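Extended Data, panel c. Modelled sequence:
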Amino acid sequence: MISFLLAYVTITLFAMVFLGIYGVVTRSNLIKKIIMLNIVNDAINMLFILIGYRMVFPVFPPVYEKHITFREFLEKSVDPLPQALVLTAVVIGMAMNILLTTYAIQFYRLHGTIDARDIAEIVGGEGNESA
């Protein structure tokens, strides 16, 4: 039962990653692209957490306590490295989200659009005028 649940969650997370990548590639609205990037970021973070989790009961936190043996601690404790990586990725993802949203808002203020096709025309047109 646990292996079926683990497989189901893993497949769902991979589907979320592919759905997010599909949304980034196919959508032309910048806000929708930012939302899809957040979906990809969250799904990858959950995959990292899932990789570090042990499918045994009871699961110990990655803090050694004296009432358990060291061998039992190694077999049943959660891996702290993916947790640290995910914590760092959450902060980086938040900063990326704020930066991209700020760029989208500023581009809308300057040019009146957040459509990626229009942005490509505007940026491409400005580059051709200077040549």
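The chain has five helices and no strands. This feature is highlighted in the accompanying rendering.
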